Amino acid sequence: MRTIEIDEEVYRALQKRARAFEDTPNDVLREILLPFPEAPPQPRLASEGRSTTEGNHGLKMQGEEIRRGYVSYLEQKGIALTHEWGVLYSGANGLKVAIPTATERRSGRWFLGVAESYFGGGDKVVLILLCLEEDQTFDFVLPHEVAIETMRFLTRLQGQIKMNVVQAGESRYILQIPQQEPMDVSLYLHAYGPLRGKA
What we know:
Elements: H1 8-17, H2 25-33, H3 52-76, E1 82-85, E2 88-90, E3 96-98, E4 101-103, E5 109-115, E6 125-132, E7 137-142, H4 144-151, E8 156-157, E9 160-167, E10 173-175, E11 183-184
Parallel strand pairs: 3-6, 4-6
Antiparallel strand pairs: 1-2, 2-3, 5-9, 6-7, 8-9, 9-10, 10-11
């Protein structure tokens, strides 16, 4: 173990992210700084010797497998989710969680989509943008209020809300918003508070 000094402001920020009586400052820093362990493998693309129909089905199955692994990872952190349908899960106290998944097709870019219907029924829905690259998984956990506000400006196509996450620096990630300033989603990386009922 190493000892580091931090100022009061940083310590208070760590306290806000910690689960009372459970997390040490090291636990909070580990959750923020260390990537999701053992990123699932890249799915094969439809162009790799399969028809488009077979490829889309294969990608859907790969997405389901990735989400299952991710939900198991959350369970190890004390966050239990139950699959409902599509990319929608339910958690404690009636919480709904949508987990669209994307693999990196172009360096530092992920294209995701989620059914618009998930957000129209009055349920409180947390949105997790699960973005995979070759050796890491980035999970941006957007609280319900942030997700709802942001979705007002996103493109809709055939009942889907389309999202484009872009790496904009060493550790900065943005959500592209048409005709608006992009939204910095970096602060939502590994931010599991909303899944535990914290704001």
